[in-house]
């Protein structure tokens, strides 16, 4: 049993103008202790919807999210159970995720659940600040006295104050400049290793995910098209979409080539193409792609593409549906 | 990987710096206020001159007006025969010595008149304001938390009705219901006619009665207060509730509220520590304005309830072209607005560290 199990999760939004939009369409993922799982994809592919559903900010339409084997309840006004509190999130925008009217110290103190919190809350606040690399007099200051990177450290400290097992970080460094990005990412990864947390790291930055994630999952239009150990996904991408993403990265090498962009845009999630969702943009699309692609295991990687079905020959379509 | 927050320094030193900052800020604001008041006297002086007719024609009877000697005597008595700059200069030097002049209508000193009428207004403005702030904040918070549900809809419709109700109409309706139909309220005034007013200390009947220990008088005064306070509270609550509701809605959608919920804080704690504080900003803004307008007199409400407040005084001064009284009221209103604004700005700093006097 994994620390965090996401099983066949679907997230739907209903709107009057566009009807029902299925932003996440049957996603399964596992996060283990001390492991960083990177989820990458273009804007609008549903990765943020998935993150929000996992932490309970959006209701899950079908499927389950299990933390240590027990389901996580959606976030409502009712007080969160001690079990659900073990999953914490780091938001994208460090300017909106701290209360501008309260000191850092008071914001850290009122969620404190670490073992030593009952006896010495002030000491715990200092320990948390130190853990994220901030001076202890930061506790008396207000969020507007900090830079974006420092605020994101505070946000991480606040998440750690709840003594979590799992962190869900939704684009935690996108709002930061390049140098603070590196610092905050290093901090997150170090904490995951030291404290034995599991982290679901969501980003559109494939290079960044390559640097830090143990497992990479690539999402396209609400589904995971490829997943596996990061090194293998990077070294031999199985799905044409993963390959396209990697080819689109600028690279420094002995024989420099221009990055190859992927044509087209992510289609509207309200009008998903039939068969393989990537078909309209896929450089290797075939006739057979009008059918639902099979999910195939190659080594430790999983890929949902007709190419492998032909190579491995005879895997019945849909037999391993939803495994990804 | 240790990073220092900007502008390092011990908290104690920060606090001291804050105090001197605040002192400098307040003295600057007072200087601005004085300039403003000077401007107000000039403007009022000029505007009154622009009104057709003069104090003599407004205050003397027809027969007296036909006698040029009487008119000349009247004008000489009030200094109206002097050139305008001289009139203004005389007025200004008097004001600086604390003399606001004599009202042409009441024949008493304007300062004395203000000291009678202002406490009366204060007596209905203060309770209205307090009630409105408490009710408005509570109802606004309730509506925001129950966003788009039945409770919220009821509040929205209710406040819209409250906003659209003219104050004189509401005054007449409550008089009709509570005085005429139910007979539980007096029809107006500050005290029943048979009651000897308590010794004047603050000028507020309820306070003076309480100080004198005359609780029957106190109760009578409270009964007289009830209806005007009810009307003024209703109207202020309607405005306040809407502002509080929208401010709190904005805050409730913030990521830090989600984080607070996610880390398992109980709802009451979140509302108290995170939401209420943000909702206080509009409460202060709107209450400041509402309080200033209540203090500068609610002419219609005071008129209907026969309440001898600033509004009535201002109305009579204006209709009688009673120059010293008009000037006195204008100065008072200007003073109220600038003082309330200063208070509001200082309170902002207390509530929001980002705008702590810069």
TrEMBL record, chain A:
A GO molecular-function descriptor: ATP binding
Listed InterPro entries: AAA+_ATPase (IPR003593), ABC_transp_ATP-bind (IPR050319), ABC_transporter-like_ATP-bd (IPR003439), ABC_transporter-like_CS (IPR017871), Oligopep_ABC_C (IPR013563), P-loop_NTPase (IPR027417)
Domain (ABC transporter) ranges: 6-246
Keywords: ATP-binding, Nucleotide-binding, Transport
Alphabetical list of SUPFAM superfamilies matching this protein: P-loop containing nucleoside triphosphate hydrolases
Pfam families hit by this protein: ABC_tran (PF00005), oligo_HPY (PF08352)
Membership in a protein family: Belongs to the ABC transporter superfamily.
PANTHER family linked to this entry: D,D-DIPEPTIDE TRANSPORT ATP-BINDING PROTEIN DDPF-RELATED, TRANSPORT ATP-BINDING PROTEIN
Protein name: ABC transporter ATP-binding protein
Organism encoding this protein: Cellulomonas avistercoris
């Amino acid at each position: 049993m994994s620390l965090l199990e996401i099983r066949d999760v679907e997230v739907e939004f209903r709107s009057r103008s566009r009807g029902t939009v299925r932003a996440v369409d049957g996603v399964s993922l596992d996060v283990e202790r001390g492991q960083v799982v990177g989820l990458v994809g273009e804007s609008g592919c549903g990765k943020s919807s998935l993150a929000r559903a996992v932490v309970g900010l959006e209701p899950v339409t079908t499927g389950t999210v299990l933390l240590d084997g027990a389901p996580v309840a959606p976030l409502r006004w009712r007080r969160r159970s001690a079990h659900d509190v073990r999953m914490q999130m780091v938001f994208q925008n460090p300017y909106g995720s701290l209360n501008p009217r309260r000191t850092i110290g008071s914001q850290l103190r009122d969620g404190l659940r670490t073992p030593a919190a009952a006896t010495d809350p002030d000491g715990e606040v200092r320990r948390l600040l130190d853990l994220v690399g901030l001076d202890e007099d930061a506790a008396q200051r207000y969020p507007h006295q900090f830079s974006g990177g420092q605020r994101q450290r505070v946000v991480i400290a606040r998440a750690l104050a709840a003594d979590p097992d799992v962190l869900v970080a939704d684009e935690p460094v996108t709002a930061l400049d390049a140098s603070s990005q590196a610092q905050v990412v290093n901090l997150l990864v170090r904490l995951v290793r030291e404290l034995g947390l599991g982290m679901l790291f969501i980003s559109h930055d494939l290079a960044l995910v390559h640097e830090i994630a143990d497992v990479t999952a690539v999402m396209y239009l609400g589904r995971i098209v490829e997943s596996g150990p990061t090194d293998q996904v990077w070294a031999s991408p199985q799905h044409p979409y993963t390959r396209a993403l990697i080819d689109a990265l600028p690279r420094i090498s002995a024989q420099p080539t221009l990055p190859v962009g992927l044509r087209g845009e992510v289609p509207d999630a309200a009008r998903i193409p039939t068969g393989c969702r990537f078909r309209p943009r896929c450089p290797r699309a075939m006739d057979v792609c009008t059918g639902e692609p099979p999910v195939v295991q190659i080594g430790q990687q999983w890929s949902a593409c007709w190419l492998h079905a032909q190579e491995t020959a005879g895997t019945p379509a849909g037999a391993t549906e939803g495994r990804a | 990987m240790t990073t220092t927050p900007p502008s390092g320094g011990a908290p104690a030193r920060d606090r001291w710096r804050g105090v001197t900052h605040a002192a400098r800020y307040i003295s600057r604001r007072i200087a601005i206020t004085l300039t403003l008041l000077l401007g107000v006297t000039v403007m009022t002086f000029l505007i009154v001159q622009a009104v057709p007719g003069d104090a003599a024609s407004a205050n003397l009877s027809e027969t007296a007006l036909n006698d040029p000697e009487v008119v000349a005597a009247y004008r000489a008595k009030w200094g109206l025969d002097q050139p305008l700059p001289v009139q203004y200069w005389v007025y200004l030097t008097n004001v600086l010595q604390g003399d606001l002049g004599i009202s042409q209508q009441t024949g008493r000193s304007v300062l004395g008149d203000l000291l009678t009428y202002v406490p009366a207004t204060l007596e209905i403005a203060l309770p209205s304001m307090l009630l409105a702030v408490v009710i408005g904040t509570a109802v606004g918070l309730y509506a925001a938390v129950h966003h788009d549900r039945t409770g919220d809809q009821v509040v929205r419709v209710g406040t819209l009705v409250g906003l659209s109700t003219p104050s004189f109409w509401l005054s007449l309706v409550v008089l009709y219901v509570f005085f005429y139909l139910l007979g539980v309220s007096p029809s107006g005034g500050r005290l029943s006619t048979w009651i000897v007013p308590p010794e004047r200390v603050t000028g507020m009947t309820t306070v003076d009665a309480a100080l004198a220990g005359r609780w029957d008088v106190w109760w009578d005064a409270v009964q007289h207060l009830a209806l005007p306070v009810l009307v003024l509270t209703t109207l202020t609550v309607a405005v306040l509730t809407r502002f509080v509701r929208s401010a709190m809605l904005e805050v409730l959608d913030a990521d830090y509220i989600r984080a607070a919920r996610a880390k398992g804080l109980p709802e009451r704690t979140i509302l108290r520590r995170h939401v209420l504080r943000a909702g206080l900003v509009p409460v202060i803004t709107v209450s400041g304005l509402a309080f200033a307008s209540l203090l500068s007199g609610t002419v219609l409400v005071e008129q209907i309830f026969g309440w001898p407040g600033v509004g009535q005084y201002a109305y009579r001064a204006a209709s009688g072209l009673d120059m010293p009284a008009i000037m006195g009221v204008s100065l008072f209103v200007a003073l109220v607005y600038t003082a309330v604004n200063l208070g509001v700005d200082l309170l902002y700093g207390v509530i929001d560290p980002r705008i702590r006097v810069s």
